[in-house]
Amino acid sequence: MKSWRLWLPPLRRRLALPVTSLQLCLLGLLGGIIAALLIVLFRLAIRSIQSLYLQHADDFAAMLPEQRALLPLISAVFITLLGLMIGLKHYRLGIPFVIHRIKLKYGIMPWKNTVHQFFGGIAALSAGFSVGREGPSVHLGAFGASSIGSYLRLPYNSIRILAGCGIAAGISASFNTPLAAMIFVMEVVLREYRIHVFVPIMLASTAGSIIATAVFGSNNDLHSLHMVTLSHWHLPYLILCGVAMGIVATFFNKSLMRMMKTFHNWHLSLRLGLAALLTIGIGYLVPEALGAETGAIHYAVAAPDQMGLLFAIFVAKFLLTVFALGLGIPGGIVGPVFGIGIVMGTILAFMPSLLIGDYSTVGTYAVLGMAGMMAATIHAPLAALVAVTELAANPELVVPAILVITASYVTAVQFFNTKSIFLLQLDFLQMPYRLSPADDVLQKVGVLAMLKQDYQVLENPTDTQIIQVLDTLLPTQQLLVKRKFAVDQHYELASYDLSLSMTGESMLKFQPVHAVSHQATMAEVFAELGDVRDGAVLVYDDEHPDQPLGIVVWEQVRTLLMRQNNLL
Prior knowledge:
Layout: H1 2-6, H2 8-15, H3 22-50, H4 65-86, H5 94-104, H6 111-126, H7 134-152, H8 156-175, H9 178-189, H10 195-216, H11 235-262, H12 268-285, H13 293-302, H14 307-326, H15 334-348, H16 350-356, H17 362-378, H18 381-392, H19 398-415, H20 421-428, H21 437-442, E1 455-459, H22 463-472, E2 478-484, E3 489-496, E4 508-517, H23 522-529, E5 536-541, E6 544-553, H24 554-563
Parallel strand pairs: 1-2, 4-5
Antiparallel strand pairs: 2-3, 3-4, 5-6
């Protein structure tokens, strides 16, 4: 154990630097494996529960109505009791909460929220609520991987990267889309691209896909769709389809936010109960729309010519998703959006199917509908493009997908001024997710990377002793004065104050030296010194607070910021 701990100080110092390293890659891979195992356990639990009453996963239409009605009620009661046991203040779940924690808390996920997401997500998905499994996957993945960094007390900047690795592995293990998972993390969650971040995320995502494939096989949710190459005469029509998807996505986002605002002040038990009742009512009329996106895929494939049924599934799926997510059912938004997009794409394929006399293009239009809805709803056009190409395993879909995605995204953003549904939720829930330019730069560098140890410490000295030492210091050295009292002690930075040399007062200047953890980044140093723009902070090990590791001075903060676009 002791020899293992000897590796930690150099490891922490290495990870404090924002550079590519073998150590970070290996930790990211380990984090990805842990995250993937959590997702596998999550998916197996849902599959095992559904096998008790369903012949096929997510196919609730074959159940008797009275049996189908019990599931949402049981689930709502269970989620409510779970919330009351753990604490309703911890009922912050899903991708918006993860984005908030990534930006403000370095991706460190509270365990109580994670427990609620795990068991609440299982209950919601098993009961047929129209929510996706990617929300819990992102949450669980971030928790699993960041827990490694928390356990080893690694620098916060590296814990954030590990959280990104866990998210990528979680999505990859959930949908078997390793490339789309990587892009999703960079485009939606981290909202930046850095090569030293991308490499470990890439490894973690690969690990998630390998583990999921070993347990569930290589098929993904779209394996039942038959896709063909579209002729060029489809392209103008695809632009119109994209416009229609942008309009629907805008209406979806606005409807979901209106639902959240309307019932926000209701108690959780009342909101979940209402969601269960609405799900029972709509599920009684259109049971094919219940569950995640898998059911919508099945019926789009099975009945592409039954427009009445498809329209009913489309409307029901739209309403079920808005009600479930807007009223607080734990789950993700991407899965139901996939289902809505697939049904919408199948409906839009009706016109070209009439022209060519068969339904061979339905599968292709269904996948393009999924891409268009995803791009316009969550504002992730690149992730949508990669997801379609990867799920369909057909590179010839790239050009049609680009047209649909571009048309839907531009329509939503420019003509309707629609924001990403995740950002809308973050703004409404008052969860900050924006960093100042200075913090954005400084959070990427740990204090251990900037540690200075060329300083001297004097304990309870006189002014004469301080002056004697200051006269002998080299220009780069600092002098710390340790004021030790009976029950307390603190440090001060001693220096000459030349402005007082002509007044007859003491020429010595003393500045309080605050302490920061060895896990801190330069952003925490900026928070301590930014007001006075001078001084230093003391860095200490959490386990040995009485043994300082070194200091970081304001000049180091200033240098970092000056290198990045003159932020000072």
